[in-house]
Amino acid sequence: MIRIFHHYVSKIAFMLLLLEVLILLTAAVASAPLWLKGRPGGAEQLYLPALAFALVVVFSMGTLGMYQHNQAREDIKSTLLRILPSFVLGFALMNLLANMLPGAQFGRLGSMVFVLGGASVLLARLVVFTSAQSSMLEQRLIVIGDGAIARECMELAASSVGFHQFRVVGFVPVAGEARSVPPAMLLPSDLPLLELARRYAADEIVVSVGDRRNGAFPVRQLLECALGGVPVTDAASFFEREACQIRVDSLQPSYLIFGGGFDQSLMRAAVKRGFDLLASGAIGLAALPLMLLTALAIKIEDGGPVFYRQERVGRDNRVFNVLKFRSMRQDAEQDGKPKWAALDDPRVTMVGHWIRKLRIDELPQMLNVFRGEMSFVGPRPERAYFVAQLCEQIAYYNVRHGIKPGITGLAQVRYSYAASIEDSVRKLQYDLYYVKNNSLFLDLLILLDTVQVVLFGKGGR
Fold first, then answer.
1. Could you tell me which residue ranges the Bacterial sugar transferase domain spans (predicted)?
2. Whole-prediction pTM
3. 136-243 has CATH 3.40.50.720 classification
4. Were both Cys, which of 83, 115, 117, 270 would link to 27 (CB 3.0–4.6 Å)?
């Protein structure tokens, strides 16, 4: 992983993006004779269209999720099914640019460059993904500890969520932990850690031990490993780096205090406010016809109110009224007691089912953004009734209220609606990552992922 503006990005994904930009530029240059045939002007006039073509297609592929971690495990059929709509979207965007800026010669880009570019990108992805799954690029881990956190490290490595593979070669038991890993994977604890790392060709050592104050914790041996060229990583850092999560069960207060991040500077606040206004204004204008149709459909279905106002907890625990399109029956909470939204919730209306699935019900919250109560990207605001419960039952839950809540966020694009305490814990881990590492770069990535969530209806209830 490499870190760009505080956010962890896969090296392979980053190299893939640069490679595909180069491939698309090459495809544009290779098909240039067909563009220029019988037309005045030299090749220098096509530099801008070629660059625009490469950037627009990469943007289209990113919008449809082709740079997400799970794409590394797709087969050729799934990759092809994503490339085709990506290039169709790119073709549409290029034609839009040609109509908006006719003097820039965008109209010269013919269909041949899209065919050539698409075939080249497909071939490049097959080569890169096949190489990424090779055992030669597999990273081998030794985990210090054999408790629940150690087991979660093994599960994360086995899940293959990223572009590169991990394999836990064994666990070094530490006294005082309840064993949660397979006994067959335990390594001899009487050997020095550096010797173990070299014997098993470990690329990294992950420390999952929670209690490090007893004499059984091998501090000196871990120092020898670090000095001997074997990287030593804390489990919390491992989860943050590989899963974009700050795991509550492996979190020490010192990690939040001394771990960096949490940028609340005046510059960051100004940039984020500008992004909020620009993104909300642009999307609000583009979605205005859709919002009018949604309001009409809600009114026709049961004649009830179009909008729904609900108290939510925002930054610094301030309560405000969030505005949404009504997606449930008017008597959804007859007894006055708040309830979690469940899968296939019977309280959801027919129109509500679709606007929740496509996240259209969230669009009126643009007004909350303009009021300064919310950001466009941030943790989802929760109801005060549930916040009181969650703060009592989940450690560090109140940390998410250190910044403004958002219409969309990392937890929204990586996880579905929270319908229980367990779901809230999982979402909190993404929210903590965002609070700690938020930046304009991460906001833009989440915005792109949100487009995919809306297009494919992921996570709706």
1. 272-455
2. 0.84
3. yes
4. 117
